[in-house]
Amino acid sequence: MKSPIVHFALLGLVLFVGARWLLPSERTERAPDTRIVISESQVAALVSRYEATSGMVATDDVRAGLTRRFAEEEMLCREAHRWGLTENNQAIDLRLRQKMAFVSDEEHSDEELERQARALGLDSDDAVIRSMLVHNMRLLLSTKGEQEPTDAEVQAYYEREYSRFARPARITGWHVFFSKDLRQLSAMAAARAAKAELDAEALRPEQAVELGDVSPSGAHFKGQLARQLASRFGEEFARVAESLPEGNWSDPVETPFGAHLLLVQERTQPQTPPLSKIRARVAAAYRSSQRQKRLATAMEDLRARYEVVVP
Hints:
The structure is a single chain. This protein has helices spanning about 5-20, 40-55, 60-80, 90-105, 110-120, 125-145, 150-160, 180-185, 185-200, 205-210, 225-235, 235-245, 275-305; strands at about 35, 170-180, 220-225, 255, 260-265, 305-310. It is an alpha+beta fold. Among the domains are: about 150-165 and about 275-305; about 165-265, Chitinase A, domain 3 (Roll). The strands form two sheets. A four-stranded antiparallel β-sheet has the order 3-2-5-4. Strands 1-6 form a two-stranded parallel sheet. It starts with a helix and ends with a strand.
């Protein structure tokens, strides 16, 4: 015990034990940073980007919505790092290698490029990587604990959302066209005159179309959805075709192309196929609805856990 070497060893042991007791271990997991501070410059950048892409001035509600969305994305990014979604991620590794190779003047291996990129923090402020992490984290939260739906769950969802799976109505008919390019301002007047003639004399559709001009989209439409008619002739044309009684010629309908007289010959009613025919479609819709609910619940938990500070 009188040896200086023993004294030195005991003192070192005391210091070692004291340091391990007083100072936290490096292996101890740090508590996640749950405080998000959004600076004025970040809010200004969000508003500027919105106004540049939308062409509208950001109102206070829009500004609040942009800030809230940014905060939620930051929560998801931090959770993605905490869950290890950045590790062994080929898409992120490729992005980092590309960025580092662009700024580096020397040749390096892929591993060295990734190491240097992470050391420089190139993964923390990259919009592409941020978007990847947000997307992956949302997908993870929405599918966590997911199980294949049971027959009872699919049946209940089908009955609850019955009209959602209906096949839309299809419309068959004719139209008499009066071209704005050919007739200029007289297109509507010509359509009214033709309508009076059709009211006075019953003409077959093939005869009626001869009262007007040749339509680039054809005079006859068969088994068309309303959205298909809107794409061919315009929204007003489709709206009239959906409500016009079968067998009656419409009043003149003005579209960007001119004027039209419509005749609906047949309109099938929306029909929902039996579950046995569309079970895969119903099951997929049910899974999607459950994922939305799980994600909404997870986001509520994150918002409760994080503190967001906005100037």
